[in-house]
Design brief:
Blueprint (H helix, E strand, L loop, with lengths): L1 H13 L2 H8 L3 H15 L4 E3 L4 E3 L1 H25 L7 E7 L1 H18 L3 E7 L6 H4 L3 E5 L7 E9 L1 E5 L1 H7 L13 E4 L7 E6 L2 E6 L4 E3 L2 H9 L4 E5 H9 L4 E2 L5 E2 L2 E8 L6 H13 L7
Parallel strand pairs: 3-4, 3-5, 8-11, 8-12
Antiparallel strand pairs: 1-2, 5-15, 6-15, 7-12, 7-13, 9-10, 9-14
Helix pairs in contact: 1-2, 1-3, 1-4, 2-3, 5-10
GO molecular function: DNA-binding transcription factor activity; sequence-specific DNA binding
Protein name: LysR family transcriptional regulator
InterPro entries: LysR-type_TF_proteobact-type, LysR_HTH_N, LysR_subst-bd, WH-like_DNA-bd_sf, WH_DNA-bd_sf
Length: about 300
């Protein structure tokens, strides 16, 4: 019965049988059978079905509210057992931006799985901010300021950024002597940031915001890094992403006496009455392993 309730909630939240099947990792036929069993037991129709989409009936809306609470209570009961000494078990679905996911989250996940054999992780790397509820995600790693939402959040630290360009670009266009000179340069921006075209510099306690007119915008930090290495222009990159290129002189550090405003790093998860042990353990593990502190 509990599996059918979870399937029902997944269909309601994903607004489709196929999407719910992908979310749960089961076949579409199994999803259809689970919904059919519930509707037979309840002797009522839970979904309006059409060729394009499905939606909850009035009865389905009422049932979803109570089913969601029932699942939370079942999970809370299991969590209470695990807290008595048993290791958490189950699958965790996690999403993170591509660059930090590859560079930092993936190694942490590998270490985490070795330490907790009863858990498995489905890691989804995407520079777009995916829908946690609709996608069935337990938690997400988010860079930058968070929009207002009903999500819970824990700040993990801050990401330092650096201003860089390739030696070839600097030989062709010259070096900027200060933030205001960037208006005369070809700038590359990461378009997924909320304030992608405003770069904030700090020096000697003073703050200077510069509006950037980008020559190139891209929604991937990895592609942004590549464009900078190839001489496309000046880019603001996370320090962890630029580190190796700076060490090999593929990129050059610019305006070293200025600091770029640090970006907050959060883990966010859907609001609920309790946080499952498996999610709590992973959040604590990530926070312990990430070598990210407060801005200087």
């Amino acid at each position: 019965m509990s599996d059918d309730l979870r399937t029902f909630c997944a269909v309601a939240e994903a607004e489709g049988f196929s999407a719910a099947a992908n979310r749960l990792g089961i076949g579409k036929a199994a999803v259809s059978k689970a919904i059919k069993r519930l509707e037979t037991q309840l002797e009522t129709q839970l979904f309006h079905r059409s060729t394009r989409r499905i939606s909850l009936t009035e009865a389905g809306e009422a049932y979803y509210h109570h089913a969601r609470l029932a699942i939370q209570q079942l999970d809370a009961a299991a969590d209470a057992v695990y807290s008595l000494g048993q290791e958490p078990r189950g699958r965790i679905k996690l999403t993170a931006p591509m660059s930090i996911g590859l560079a930092q989250i993936t190694p942490i996940v590998a270490e985490f799985l070795a330490q907790f054999p009863g858990l498995s992780i489905d890691l989804h790397l995407d520079d777009d901010r995916v829908d946690l509820i609709g996608g069935g995600f337990d938690l997400a790693i988010r860079v930058g300021s968070l929009p207002d939402s009903d999500m819970m959040a824990r700040q993990l630290g801050f990401l330092d950024s650096v201003l860089v360009a390739s030696p070839e670009y600097l030989a062709r266009r010259g070096w900027p002597s200060g933030p205001s000179c960037l208006a005369d340069h070809e700038c590359l921006v990461y378009s997924n940031e909320r304030y992608a075209e405003e770069w904030v510099f700090q020096r000697h306690g003073a703050t200077q915001a510069v509006d950037i007119t980008p020559r190139f915008r891209v929604n991937s930090a990895i592609a942004l890094h590549r464009a900078a290495v190839l001489g496309g222009g000046i880019a603001r990159l996370p320090r962890y992403l630029a580190r190796e290129s700076l060490q090999t002189d593929s990129l050059v550090l610019l305006l070293a006496d200025y600091r770029l405003e640090a970006q907050p790093l959060h883990v966010v998860y859907p609001e609920r009455h309790f946080i499952p042990a498996k999610v709590r353990v992973l959040v604590n593990f990530i926070q312990d392993k990430l070598a990210i502190g407060s801005p200087q």
